[in-house]
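To assess whether the prediction recovers the assembly geometry, we first specified each molecular entity separately, as shown.
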Amino acid sequence: MFGDQKVCFSGVQPSGNLTIGNYLGAIRNFSEFSELYKTFYCVVDEHAITVRQNPAELRRRTYETLALYMACGLDPEKNTLYVQSMVHEHAELAWILNCYTMFGELSRMTQFKDKSTKHADNVNAGLFTYPVLMAADILLYQTDVVPVGIDQKQHVELCRDIATRVNQIYPDLFTIPEPIMPKSGKKIMSLVEPTKKMSKSDENTNAVVYILDDRDAIIRKFKRAVTDSGAEVRAAEDKPGVTNLMTVYSCFTGKSMEEIEREFAGKGYGDFKLAVGEVTADALAPVQKRFAELMADKAALEAQMKKGAEEASYYARRTLSKMQKKLGFVQIH
Ligand code: ATP
Ligand code: LTN
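The predicted structure of the complete assembly is given in tokenized form:
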């Protein structure tokens, strides 16, 4: 809460081309909070450098992620859209919160375990303290709700633990946030290994449908998607491939799993996969069109970054300075 207004915060890393997992699990759901909440949506470039990035690509993707926020329906007049590194309070609060986070807690984070296995040559301290920076992002804005996919739930829970610990020493300093996940789409799976999360950093581009993929690529990837033995379009635990495609179809059409089963009864996987590709391409076409228009005006995106950072700083500064004062840091105005 800031004053009497509830706050919603979320972030996406500019660490690769955004996927339909990012879209269905997170970004698509952001706009539903715009009316009732004060909303902050951040492009978290400081999180992205926990794995090596090419600077030119990181810069380009930062513009693209901001443009995608807007192309997915976030109006910059109703939402604060900005880039994390342009608001220095994030890194400053993260340092302070590091001193209130336990080594053991961070060691238990599954994302750290996964990423340190995947990037075994670069298990840097930033990868380890990544969730602390994320806690700083959230707590700086006295956030009530954090819309995320299920893979981020553990990080939001750690953020709650950190905030509770700080509040025990300095009462009411932070609002305790709640993770919010969509009913359907909180974990879209890889098209090649449907027991693994679809991830924008997957090297196999056939496993991933990107928001910006063209119609042919989308249809081709779904046609090639790994399905299970049998030929029935039916959701089941032992049919992760088909179940995942049904989830995507359900997210884009609003139909329930039962309705989908009925619709494709007696039809083979081929017809079904084509239908999933078509609804996905149809849903993404307007986002792609708007994205292209926004990317054509770099100056407008930069003006938006500047405005967003100024808005965010106003709130971030208030929380940071409250924390610093409690800690005993000298403040001279
Ligand atoms: P990376 O592969 O680089 O770790 P990522 O694809 O997991 O990245 P993030 O920037 O870490 O993407 O995530 C942005 C948001 O998208 C988060 O809220 C995350 O939970 C959500 N998300 C990411 N992948 C999926 C997925 N496959 N299904 C549902 N939600 C997802
Ligand atoms: N860790 C998140 C991105 C992220 C985030 C946040 C999400 C950084 N800071 C604050 C919600 C709130 C991820 O998706 N990997």
